[in-house]
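Reading a protein record of the kind used here takes little practice once its layout is understood. Each number in the token line that follows is a code from a learned vocabulary of backbone shapes. One such record is shown here in full, so that the layout can be seen directly:
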Amino acid sequence: MTASARAGRVRPGWRGLIALVLICWGGIAGAVEPGQGESDIAMHMAKIGIGSVVTIANSAGEVFTHVHEGRHDGLWELRSFAGRTRTGESLGSLFLDDRGQIVRQVDSDGAVTRFEPHRCMRTVGECTYTRIAPDGRREQRRRITTPILGGFTYVIEGPGGLRLEGMAKLDRMGWIKRGWFIHEGTGKRLDLRMLRAIYR
């Protein structure tokens, strides 16, 4: 089974959000971390030290660990693993800009999905992007992100009546502490919560 096929079963967070990013997860509802105002929804990649680790669980009983691998060709790499440590199965990597916008996704089988100019996850208001699948198929999507106290809500619209939505509460670095999203593959809601964050 390819990484892309597994995404609908064991890797919902990256496909649906959040991201990563994703991309994304247990704080107090409504709490605002220092530096996290209603309009600050960036993920502060330059402040997150290389080797930092964040572990996320979802309501399907799945657990994922994300490791900051540093900067490569002008983008920050977050590598994902199944389970609570980086010794689990590798699920691939996300490549992000300084604000935590996902530019490229590389599955464990080497398949690359690109987003032009990026996936719009950290842009307040309306943002349009193009998703370029590994086979070169291009699809334009529109994301509307609304800041709320300590985080944001969002709606994504795309071809064929696609409509996805979700909510995230952020920690001081912009990682998602807690939230939910509609999984693109199944159409079901998944809740997310951060189990741990170790910042270097």
